[in-house]
């Protein structure tokens, strides 16, 4: 990989400080610059630290999520995940201390304590997560002390989530804040013993569109139970049983590797990376899990499930492959695990990937992505809209797979868009999810509207 230097006619130069974050496979060997704070003024596609924490914790269905800060922070992240629940709907509420100028001048600790008291009196939740925001970190409100006192006062878990955004320009810091909060919740209190089981925990699964339920159905068929998911369709009580699992599966590596490592250090629970996006990934993950248990009956049932489901998927994928061969795709998503899954699915469909990037990828993850890509593919970390626009034009992209912030940019450039955002309600996991994804790619990339747009000047209009 090497720095991407060529520019289309009339394109602005990339920001000098960003040049090491934009590489092209095949030029020479080199490491991409990543995992650092976003460059000030670059209008990064990353979300803020608080948002990173909120997307991890929000699917805990029966907990209250209280945002200590101005009302805009709570409004911005209301119902931020497309997570579904089989029980409580408490997580769909958005609570805020609604800090005003007076609170910022004189401090908001009393207001926070009063809000917690009111919430507990009205809703009696089993736990309250209290998120700090930028302004709270600036004025120095001690949310740790307020939460500790409230926890003692109400005899429930009131857990501070230290997610003040000014600490960093990196969403991963928010993931770490959420992880620390989860570890506080699930660590057994003195005198509490959690019985070991043969169940597994599913980390980094947020039940978007019911995806956890799909994987749960597969595992149940082969004879394995999910103990608790972190955090899709989870409850406070279920999360507290997490130390009893015999294995931790990690799907979203960016948000949950830290938790998995801590659980292994503290409770001795091993972990493995899995990926249930795409038929091939699902097949490999199920076999890895079956091998861990070492039970011949589980292995036999696993192979039977894979053969049955694959026989349904193969002809559908082949049908779409014939129609999509030669299409050019761009990928820009939150984490590297998702990027890898999409790359693999698109390659199954004979689609050429010409641009890929993530918000939170690590060097070793980018090396893995590079190994999956063809020479000349642009790889970009923590992109800004100007960079994405430039490469979407230069690479003559037919469609883009990404999140909510990329959708509008793609459409304005006359480029098709495939939604893989965390607020989606469509299930894309498992074998049936692979068919849905292929169908969406085909519907988007082969729509006749793009042919007509390409014959106009729409793609030449500057944003």
In short:
The chain has 463 residues and is of the alpha/beta class.
Envelope shape: globular
- What is the total domain count? 3
Mean pLDDT: 89
Look at the structure and name the CATH superfamily of the largest domain. Answer: Nitrogenase molybdenum iron protein domain
Query: What is the count of β-strands?
Result: 15
InterPro entries: Nase/OxRdtase_comp1, Nase_comp1_CS, NifE, NifE-like
GO molecular function: nitrogenase activity
Domain Nitrogenase/oxidoreductase component: 48-444
Keywords: Nitrogen fixation
Commentary on this structure:
By secondary structure, the chain is α/β, with parallel strands linked by helices. Helix 10 links the parallel strand 9 (247-250) and strand 10 (271-273). It is 45% helix and 14% strand. The protein has a 7-stranded mixed β-sheet, sandwiched between helices. The protein has a 4-stranded parallel β-sheet with strand order 4-3-5-6, with helices on both faces. Strands 8-7-9-10 form a 4-stranded parallel β-sheet, with helices on both faces. The protein is built from 18 helices and 15 strands. The longest helix is centred in the last third of the chain and has 29 residues, at 296-324. The protein folds into 3 domains: 2-33 and 313-460, Rossmann fold, CATH 3.40.50.1980; 49-186, Rossmann fold (3-Layer(aba) Sandwich); 200-303, 3-Layer(aba) Sandwich (Rossmann fold). Helix 4 (109-123) packs parallel to helix 6 (143-154) and helix 7 (171-186) packs parallel to helix 10.
């Amino acid at each position: 990989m090497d720095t991407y230097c060529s520019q289309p006619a009339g394109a602005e130069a990339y920001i000098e400080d960003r040049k090491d974050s934009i590489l092209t496979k095949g030029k020479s060997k080199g490491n991409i610059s990543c995992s650092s704070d976003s460059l000030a003024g670059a209008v990064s596609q990353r979300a803020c630290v608080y948002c990173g924490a909120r997307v991890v914790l929000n699917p805990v269905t029966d907990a209250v999520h209280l945002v200590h800060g101005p009302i805009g922070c709570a409004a911005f992240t209301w119902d931020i995940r497309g997570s579904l629940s089989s029980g409580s709907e408490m997580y769909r509420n958005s609570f805020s201390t609604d800090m005003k100028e007076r609170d910022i001048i004189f401090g908001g600790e009393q207001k926070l304590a009063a809000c917690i008291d009111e919430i507990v009196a009205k809703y009696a939740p089993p736990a309250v997560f209290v998120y700090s925001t930028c302004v709270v970190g600036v004025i120095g409100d001690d949310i740790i002390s307020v939460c500790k006192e409230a926890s003692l006062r109400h005899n429930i878990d009131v857990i501070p989530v230290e997610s003040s955004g000014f600490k960093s320009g990196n969403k991963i810091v928010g993931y770490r804040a959420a992880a620390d909060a989860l570890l506080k919740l699930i660590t057994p209190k003195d005198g509490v013993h959690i019985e070991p089981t043969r169940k597994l925990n599913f980390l980094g699964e947020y039940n978007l569109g019911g995806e956890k339920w799909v994987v749960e159905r597969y595992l149940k068929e082969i004879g394995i139970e999910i103990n608790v998911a972190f955090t899709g369709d989870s409850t406070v009580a279920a999360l507290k049983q997490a130390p009893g699992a015999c294995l931790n599966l990690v799907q979203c590596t960016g948000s949950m590797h830290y938790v998995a490592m801590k659980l292994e250090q503290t409770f001795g629970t091993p972990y493995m990376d899995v990926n249930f996006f795409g038929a091939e990934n699902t097949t490999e993950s199920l076999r890895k899990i079956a091998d861990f248990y070492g039970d011949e009956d589980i292995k036999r049932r696993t192979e039977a499930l894979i053969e049955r489901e694959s026989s349904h998927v193969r002809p559908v994928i082949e049908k779409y492959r014939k129609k999509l061969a030669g299409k050019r795709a761009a990928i820009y998503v939150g984490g590297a695990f998702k990027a890898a899954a999409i790359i693999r699915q698109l390659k199954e469909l004979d689609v050429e990937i010409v641009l890929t990037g993530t918000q939170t990828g690590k060097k070793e993850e980018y090396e893995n992505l590079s190994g999956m890509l063809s020479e000349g593919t642009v790889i970009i970390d923590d992109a800004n809209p100007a960079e994405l626009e430039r490469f979407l034009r230069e690479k003559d992209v037919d469609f883009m797979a990404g999140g909510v912030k990329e959708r509008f940019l793609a459409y304005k450039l006359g480029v098709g868009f495939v939604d893989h955002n965390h607020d989606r309600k469509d299930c894309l996991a498992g074998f049936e999810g692979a068919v849905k994804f292929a169908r969406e790619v085909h519907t988007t990339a082969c729509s006749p509207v793009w042919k007509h747009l390409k014959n106009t000047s729409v793609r030449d209009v500057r944003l």
